[in-house]
Each structure stands twice: as C-alpha cells, then as structure tokens.
Amino acid sequence: MADKVLMKGNEAIAEAAIAAGCRHFFGYPITPQTEVAAYMSKRMPKIGGVYLQGESEVASINMVLGAGAAGVRVMTSTSSPGISLMSEGISYIAGSDVPCLIVNVERGGPGLGGIQPSQSDYFQATKATGHGDFHLLVFAPSTVQETVDLISDAFDLGDKYRMPTMILSDGLLGQMMEPVVLPEAKEPTDSKDWAAKGHQGKRKHNVVNSLYIDPSELERLNRERFQKYEKIKETEQRAEEYLADDAEIILVAFGASSRIAHSAVDMARKQGIKAGLIRPITLWPFPEKFIEKHVGHAKSFLSVEMNMGQMVEDVKLTVKDRKPVRFFGRTGGIVPTPKEVFEQIVKINGGDC
Amino acid sequence: MSDLNILLAGFGGQGILFTGKVMAYAGLMEGKEVSWLPSYGPEMRGGTANCSVCLSDNKIGSPLVTNPDVLVAMNLPSLEKFENDVVPGGIIIVDSSIIDKKVARKDVTTIYIPASEIAENAGIKGAANMVILGKLFKETKFCTPENLDKGLQKTIPARKMDLLDKNRLCIKLGTEN
After folding, report:
1. What is the CATH number of domain A5-191+208-235?
2. Least CB-CB distance to B61: which of A32, A175, A262?
C-alpha cells in the first residue's frame, strides 16, 4: 500500500484527478478553491497535460465542453459564485451528454458573499445548476481521503452515463490537511465512440450538440435522458449510516457538517440519547433508500446543514410527513459546533420543540 | 495522551502553519488520526494567522478547534482573542519575548517562554516557533521524540533541508527552557 501523506483537500482533488487519468484542466482562480488550479498549473505541464486559465469562468466551462466533446477526461474547479457564472455552460454540457468533472469548493453566499466554508449551493447543485431539464451526479465527500476516492468514481460514472458530475466540497474540506493514500495512477484514455474528434474520414462524423429545433425530437431526447436518471436513482444512491439502526433521533448531514453531526451523535449517546446519523454521499441522486429504511423506527429527523435549510426539503420529501423533520443550520461561513448540534438533539429528546 | 486539540496563533510569517504541520505529521507517525486546518483569507495578511490541529485516537469530527486543550499565542491579539476559549485545565503557551501581558485565567496552566529571544540568542532568528514546539512537546508528550523528529523531516521542504539541524536545536532549547 502506498504511504499516507498529509495533503490539503484542494491539492488532493488535483492529484486524485490526475491519478484518474485527467489531463485537461480549465478554470479561473477563486478563494477558497485556488490551490486546485495552482497545483494543476504546476503538475499538468510536467505530465503532458493541459492547464489553461480561461479569461473567466464562462470561457473555462466552454473549454471543458469542447475538450469533453472530443472525448478526453476533463475537469474544472471553482467556488460558489464561479458555478453561477458557469451555469449556462453546464446546461449545454448536460444537454450535449458530455461527461466532465466540476468541483465546487463552496463559500458563503449569496452574491460575492464571503470566503468561509458553506453548503449553501445544495439547491443549485441538485435541482438547477442551469436552465432546462437536467441533473448532475453530485458527490459530497466528508474527508480528504473520501474526496480522493470519489473523484475517480465521479469520472468513471460520468463516462458510464455520459453526463457531467460534481464534487461538492467546501472551504473547510478544501483548506484542511488530512492523511491520504493516493490511488494508483490510471493512464488517460479517449476511447469514446461518440466523441467528435479526428477520424481520417474512416467513419461517419460524430456530432455533439445541445440545439434541437424540433420540439418532438427535443422531448424524445429529454425523456431518454430522464430514463437514464431513473436508472441512476435506482442504482447509484450512496450514504453512510452511523448508529442509525436503533436511533430515535436521526441526524441527516453531508460533507463538513456531517463531521460535526457525527461528534454531536457521540455526545448524545454518552448521555444515553439514542441518536444516529445518515450521511448522504450522493446528493443527487438523493439517498432516499437509506432514509426510508429508518422512517419506521426513528421518532424524528434533524437535518444539519451549513445554510438556511436546503437538503431538509429532500429529507421531508422522503419522510412524507410520517415523522417530524427538523432543521438546524449556521450560514454565512459559520461552521456549527458539535455542542450547538448536541443541544438541538437534547431539545428534541425533551420533546419541547 | 488521548485526544488533543491545539490552536496555534500569531502573526503571518512566524511559522504558525509550519509548526502545526510538524505536529500533524508527528501525530500521523504516531498512528493517530490527525487534521490540520489553517485560517485563510484576509486575516492572514497582516493580522493574525492561526491553525487548528487535532490529534486523536478516534475519527476526527470538526477539524475547527473552538475550545483548545492547548493554545499557543505568539502575539498579543491572538492571546486576547483566544484566551477565554481554552478548556478549563488546559495549557496556554505564551511567547513572553513578544507578549508582556499575563494570562488572567487561573483555571489553566500558563507557560511563559521567551521563545523569540531564545531562538535569536542561538543565532536562528525566526525560529521561535520551534522553541515553542519543543516546550509544547515537553508539556504534553503528544508523540515520541523519534516521531517528532520524523514529523519535522517530513515537513521541511527538500530545498530547505539544510535548516533541519537548526530547527532541531531550537526544539531542544524549547524542551530545556
């Protein structure tokens, strides 16, 4: 096994992408994500890859579309306001069925907001990253190691389903260092038979496009894409359960806030309160199956987020009024403390809220 | 030692983040779960730089240390900002060549060490952080001496390896003063 090294989350994102065979990076710097681009700018030229800083996020995401359409592994990374700028391009990418990896190291919003960690782009990532009917496969790692592991999966599943994928990280996970074991490096491949690239006149040319003037054709394509989404919902849901099997109060939290929720569950258990945690690893598809399993025995659910309450809506849609679903969050770049979350659990346990 | 949450704070350029990284690597060598989290953004420029380090036998929850077991204060604003956050029974290590003020709290162990002066007298200006690290190591024994040294070797970049022995000397001076 390879040695454990200490790496910043952002640097680990870059190194993991390279290990997964990515040789094309287009982006534009923004705090707290800049180390991804900085690392890529150092490494890519040494391994025959492309690092290109576009003149803006809008330019960068369209370069991603171009490279992806040519069939190579390609990625970009940015932070919250940057995703808003990229949203048009992301919609084109989804409409063109082009795989690529988009990394969002979230910061507080709306607007320019702040630069401290946040999870306030959950809605944007899972419901409407751009105009039109589409989804991204969205992964939410909670450690630096998991970030590394999910990047490889995100590239592979993006290729498998021909769709853009997203790693939803945040300033905390991006800036912190933890021990990681990097995966063995894969060689880049570009063996996609649909890709629009040189073919020396040996076959019919491929077209990668998102413009369909005929409504019936566009409807057919959208329906096909949604059949694919249904299959993904069936097979790709991921979550981690922690002490959930006998839990009466089940916390639901992803990414950085799940680490705090985990500590709060431990504090509650020490006081004899039966608390547990479900940590969604895929945000889209939302891991309904993992929640559904526990609706019977749980007395209530508590969604813990670093925003004003976004994922809680998906928890409610899954629980369907069978049990109370509550929310606790901090926003604007404030990271909740385990004690704050624990106090919410105590309050719920006392039944006075 | 079981869990140890450390907050290191001072000016940018004092080697706060570096010190934290040595500790995190030493903890990793020790087989601990570790995390290192820097402050980032505008406060890094001219104000206070700080760094959270967690060493634990268990999975680390929040890597953000809000109530440290050990606070290292290398300038006055840092001491004033974080003094009241230290857990009762915790430790505050103060670079007394930079900070005149005494710690008001009575429920913590306060250690005053003229780290900058010690480093300067040893001819290694700017290595006060390593003197403090030596002191912190002596007080908490957060790892074995061998692993501390391995942590140091892992953290010093290859192009600065000529400074290894000077750093070692400052750590040693910290343990002796």
Report:
1. 3.40.50.970
2. A262
